[in-house]
Amino acid sequence: MENLCMLTTMLPSSSRAYVFGSFLRDTVPRDLDLLIVYDKLFCLPSRAYSLHEVFVAKLQQELQLKVDLTLLTKEEELSSQFAQKTRAVAFHEVFDGSRNSR
Amino acid sequence: MHAAPFNNWNVSYSVITNFERALRGHTKVKEFKRTRDILFDIHLTNEEEIKVLLVDEYTLGLAAVHRAMDEFPGIEFIVTGGNWNGYTPQAKEWGMDHDIGIFNIEEFLGALNWTEPKKYHKKDSNGKPMYAYHDAT
After folding, report:
1. H helix runs in chain A, sequence order
2. How far is CA A47 from CA B64, B72, B111, in A?
3. Residue among A56, A66, A76 with most chain B CBs within 10 A, to mutate
4. Which CATH number covers residue A8?
5. What share of chain B is helix, strand, coil (3-state, %, to 5)?
6. What is the pTM of this model?
7. Interface ipTM
């Protein structure tokens, strides 16, 4: 498994990835809940899924797990406080490169 | 063991059957047909027909609304199933501006009782509109 943190270079500018849900708790998770917060200035909401598709596909391939993606603009994340409510953890903190462990 | 859903929106069979059960018991629904696993053509008792996409997003955002519109052209409603699901204010506003009803299941079932379902909203004790926003409040 390659350094998963390197995958974030595939993200559009200003997009930030977070992990939440059972992946952070379960020994054998069924899937990975992923939040990506993106900037409308760099990525239109109408293109958000397609512009993050490569990153998600590669992540699924590396983890051999289904990725359940939630995409929110910065403004939507701010108003919903999704990351805080779901106790999401920054992607690089979950996959720190040296361990790829939870 | 959970069966994988037959759609790429991760909508589980239980969410689909709950929605179907609610539709069957609704007095304003004459009949409905489900295609592509999560797309519902609903024939109302007032003879109107509406196209509804059922998703299961905890927080339905703008990107998901756009994706839904791309993958299911012609839909008029996007309903997010599950007990605690909602949407962002931005998604709801986009829907209002583009004549797309964005609801959670409870709201949608209420909306079917309105003459103009897309304009449905619940009201608080002061009569102010209430939406299933997932916001900081």
Report:
1. 48-63, 74-80, 82-85, 91-94
2. 10, 15, 30
3. A76
4. 3.30.460.10
5. 30, 25, 45
6. 0.91
7. 0.89
